[in-house]
Design goal:
It is globular and about 40 Å long. A two-stranded antiparallel ribbon has the order 1-2. The protein is mainly alpha-helical. It has one domain: NusB-like (N-utilizing Substance Protein B Homolog, Chain A).
Length: about 170
């Protein structure tokens, strides 16, 4: 029997710093969950942020690995949506298909579109294609039907209106 060799390049006892992309993906998922909780449960902003700030955030991937979320990024999304929700809702509604409004959608789709809408409107440091892709992945975590395509089309239409130079 031979001993297995440790082929990692990390020093013993040190943990790898979370990758920014993975941390932001986990943060987006957490932000959508927080917005859903506020919408459905009527939870106050301070309470939901305290809940997520106490270590509730992170994401388990299909391969069993966990992604550690960036609480500051999650907080910026949730606070931004709450602060500018009327404007975000107006701009998202303008990009939905004919006959559709956020009020007509179920709560998870509303939360995804609000979070994605916030990033497209106020986070110019994030390329629109990244924002769209990330929130389509969030939608795929919750839905197996046509909803991810609807989210994609809605956010794409919004990005083309708000940031055409980046598309």
């Amino acid at each position: 029997m031979t001993d297995a060799k440790d082929t990692s390049t990390k020093p013993a006892g040190k943990q790898a710093k979370p990758r920014t992309g993975v941390a932001r993906s986990a943060s987006r998922l957490g932000a959508v969950q927080a917005l859903y909780q506020m919408d459905i449960g009527g939870t106050e902003l301070a309470d939901v942020l305290a809940d997520y700030g106490s270590g509730r955030i992170g994401v388990q991937f299909d391969d069993g690995q966990c992604g550690e979320a960036d609480y500051g990024f999650l907080k910026a999304i949730v606070e931004g949506v709450v602060q500018d929700q009327v404007l975000i809702d107006q701009k998202v509604n303008e990009c939905l298909g004919e006959g559709w409004t956020l009020a007509r959608l179920e709560a998870t789709s509303r939360a995804i579109l609000r979070a994605g809408g916030f990033e497209l409107m106020f986070r110019e440091d994030v390329p629109p294609k990244v924002t769209i892709s990330e929130y389509v992945e969030v939608a795929q975590a919750f839905f197996s039907g046509s909803e991810p395509g609807f989210i994609n089309a809605s956010l794409d239409a919004m990005a083309r209106k708000r940031r055409p130079e980046d598309m």
